[in-house]
Amino acid sequence: MRLSGLTALLFSSFVYAQTDYPELNTTFLVTTNPVTPLPQGFPWGSKTANNTNPCNVIRAYDFTVKREQKAPDGYLKNVLIINGQFPGPLIEANWGDTIQVTVHNQITGPEEGVALHWHGILQKTSQWMDGVPGVQQCPIPPGGSFTYSFIADLYGTSWYHSHYSAQYAGGLIGPMVIHGPQTIPYDIDKGPILLTDYFHRNYFSIVEDVVGTDVSKVGPLSDNNLIQGRNNFDCSTVAPGDTTKCTDNAGITNFRFSPGKVHRLRLINAGAEGMQKFSIDGHNLTVIANDFVPIIPYTTQVVTLGIGQRTDVLVTGLPGATGSYAMRSSIAGGFCSFSTQPDVIAIAYYNHAAVALGTPNTTAWPAWSASVTGQCANDPLTDTTPWYPITPDPNPPVTQNIDIEFGQNATLHWVWTMNNSSFRANYNQPILLLSNLGNNSYPDSPQWNVYNFGSNSSIRIHLTNPGFLSHPIHLHGHNMFVLNVGTGSWDGTIVNPSNPQRRDVQILPAGGYLVLQIEADNPGAWPLHCHIAWHVSGGLYVTVLERPDDIAKLQIPSIMAQTCRDWATFTDETVVDQIDSGL
Ligand SMILES: *[C@@H]1O[C@H](CO)[C@@H](O)[C@H](O)[C@H]1NC(C)=O
Ligand SMILES: *[C@@H]1O[C@H](CO)[C@@H](O)[C@H](O)[C@H]1NC(C)=O
Ligand SMILES: *[C@@H]1O[C@H](CO)[C@@H](O)[C@H](O)[C@H]1NC(C)=O
Ligand SMILES: *[C@@H]1O[C@H](CO)[C@@H](O)[C@H](O)[C@H]1NC(C)=O
Ligand SMILES: *[C@@H]1O[C@H](CO)[C@@H](O)[C@H](O)[C@H]1NC(C)=O
Ligand SMILES: *[C@@H]1O[C@H](CO)[C@@H](O)[C@H](O)[C@H]1NC(C)=O
Ligand SMILES: *[C@@H]1O[C@H](CO)[C@@H](O)[C@H](O)[C@H]1NC(C)=O
Ligand SMILES: *[C@@H]1O[C@H](CO)[C@@H](O)[C@H](O)[C@H]1NC(C)=O
Ligand SMILES: *[C@@H]1O[C@H](CO)[C@@H](O)[C@H](O)[C@H]1NC(C)=O
Ligand SMILES: [Cu+2]
Fold it and tell me: Which residue puts its alpha carbon closest to atom 11 of ligand 1?
């Protein structure tokens, strides 16, 4: 069994009835069992997805972060892991609970700072807990500990990951489920399903290449694709010197489906670079949420997930089915993303006997086969209407244009720029903490890319991307309104203006534009960046500084300043090898 103790205790009868078969080697697994609301559950009572007023219990976690050798796909390599696990443990809470995570930084070989980000959480009462080093906090130094504490202020599916350099591409990721009101009823919650591209080289050496001076190395290819941290790898493809490190048939993940029952799958792209195209042979997918935002359901056969995105789908078990079906994800090719081995299959099975036969022989949906060759975009905005309607300000007081480019900086390193400036963090000088002390101008540090929007009540940002790569653009601290997205130039129109799409990551297509808007309801220093690990390492990043007058009034706990003193003590003795933007 792979369950948190409390859940197992209280829901054991329900869970046993749904246990996957056969029992998997759980060494690298997060739960693939159904998840249910936690004890003291349903605190939202009669509240529905249209209410916004949750309740509160503390859910405490203790994370020890280390670097160790693991072989999730059979290839032994150094990975960064949490409590011995890759992917990291599931964080579960009910809507409105307080999540507390104490992180112990025990990374060695070499030592590194660390900071964990809670993707999609608004942090409206704890803007300093967002976990971005150089922006809201100093890194947790080697040997140090830090306790994050924040409210589970939205419900649905998400993940957490390190925001320190590209550590998360080295394994520092895990799923997060926040139980809340249901929009569409379902029978069985299959829990989080992590889709991750996977690189056999260490993240640091990849980053050296992607921000290096040799343009032929700036687009590294992933070596494999994983569902729930698992896939097989063909060891005959590794370099001759590496064969002893590689074992074939590491195993794939199994999911049990029940005929006629409605299953909820919480899909998460927690990879570094690859855009995922997910599908289940013979089964339709009913999309019920994008990121943390429930939507009016629609049915499709392929779900596209850019890095950082989540899609919750309902899948009805086929009546009378007994066999097994391929649940497949592929890293989209073309210029969407780059991989030498883009495909992964997990088994969706009905009858225990079916899974023993091995990989299913079912046929992929034609729509999936067509999409994997390179449709680098999310589903049309017209398909994704938020369940709870909100109308954005039709005339925001400020519209900021930002152009994204790729080129060489003065030392001929290949970097990404936003408005002609490549971001670089100063881990010792977090923007939010400076702003809290009344300092909102950094004339000597234009590379901090801070956009001070003052007291503007709403903010529109128009991104343009003339290049040939797409970028999954993520904004912290908000569910952004996505007013429009597409190729070519924006014609000034808004899709579904009374209730546009809201989510926290949207794919900005190659040769295209993305227009987003926020209500300035959350004073803070909020990262707006490409979520491809290699691109944010290359500087594709700005900070949205929102309502500095109100940031000055935030009661930021003294532990934040203390962490900076502890980090400074470390950096006084050790020169940090910051080869990239820092994020
Ligand atoms: C699980 O896999 C790990 C790594 O391959 C191996 O060391 C361990 O013996 C396996 N455990 C079982 C029960 O098969
Ligand atoms: C999938 O959806 C299509 C279109 O709504 C429908 O025609 C088809 O019967 C569905 N197939 C299954 C297996 O549910
Ligand atoms: C798929 O086909 C192969 C070859 O015919 C067979 O050995 C295997 O058992 C089949 N797998 C399933 C799940 O039916
Ligand atoms: C919630 O919002 C949805 C979408 O507008 C609407 O269909 C539904 O009736 C609303 N439910 C309640 C309880 O207000
Ligand atoms: C954009 O870049 C120009 C030229 O470097 C600079 O003057 C301007 O302040 C930048 N805009 C913002 C909002 O940072
Ligand atoms: C971009 O910045 C570089 C150096 O920082 C400068 O030489 C160049 O003129 C700038 N380009 C624009 C369009 O501002
Ligand atoms: C604000 O902070 C920056 C970075 O530490 C510093 O260079 C600058 O002098 C500070 N400005 C004021 C007015 O203190
Ligand atoms: C609104 O934002 C713009 C652009 O950042 C800024 O120049 C202006 O001062 C802001 N307005 C207010 C009222 O803060
Ligand atoms: C160019 O970018 C690289 C990679 O981030 C960085 O190490 C180097 O310092 C930058 N050069 C300049 C002149 O900013
Ligand atoms: Cu990008």
Answer: 25
In the structure, what pLDDT confidence band is assigned to residue 459 with cuts at 50, 70 and 90? very high
What ligand has the least distance to the C-alpha of 22?
A: 1
The ligand placed nearest to the CA atom of residue 301 is: 2
- Side-by-side strand order, sheet with 98-105: 77-82, 58-70, 98-105, 145-151
Note residues around ion ligand 10 (Cβ under 5 angstroms).
471, 530, 532, 535
Whole-prediction pTM: 0.89
Q: Which residues contact 455 (CB under 8 A, 6 or more apart)?
A: 520, 547, 549
The answer to whether the CB of 411 is under 6 A from ligand 9 is yes
Which CATH number fits the domain 398-573, given the four candidates 2.60.40.420, 2.40.50.140, 2.40.160.50, 1.10.8.60? 2.60.40.420
Q: Where are the domains of the chain?
A: 5-184, 198-383, 398-573
> Taking CB atoms and a 6 Å cutoff, what residues make up the pocket around ligand 5?
419-420, 451
- Write out the two tokens for 73: 């796909």
How far is ligand 9, taken at its centre, from the CA of residue 23, in Å? 49
Rounded-to-integer distance, Cα 388 and Cα 409, Å:
45
Question: Beta strands of 215-332 (E only): which ranges?
Answer: 224-227, 254-256, 262-269, 276-280, 285-290, 293-300, 303-305, 310-316, 324-331
Report the nearest-CA residue for atom 1 of ligand 3: 361
Choose the CATH number for 5-184 among 2.40.40.10, 1.10.10.10, 3.30.40.230, 2.60.40.420: 2.60.40.420
- Say which CATH class 198-383 falls into: mainly beta
Ligand 3: distance of its center to the CA of 568 in Å? 59
Query: What is the radius of gyration, based on Cα positions, of the chain?
Result: 22
Q: Are 48 and 16 in contact (CB under 8 A)?
A: no
Structure tokens at 529: 């960046």
Tell me whether domains 5-184 and 398-573 share a fold.
Answer: yes
Measured distance CA(557)–CA(151) in Å, rounded: 16
Q: What are the pLDDT digits (tens) for 553-566?
A: 999 999 999 999 99
> How many angstroms separate the CA atoms of 352 and 20, rounded?
9
300-327 tens-digit pLDDT: 999 999 999 999 999 999 999 999 999 9
Q: Please say if the pLDDT value at position 22 is more than 50.
A: no
Q: Kindly state the tokens that stand for 517.
A: 């808007």
Ligand 3 mean position to 259 CA, how many Å? 22
Residues in the chain: 583
> Is the CB of residue 440 below 6 angstroms from any atom belonging to ligand 8?
no
User: Cβ(362) to ligand 3 under 6 A?
Assistant: no
pLDDT band at 45 (very low <50, low <70, confident <90, very high): low
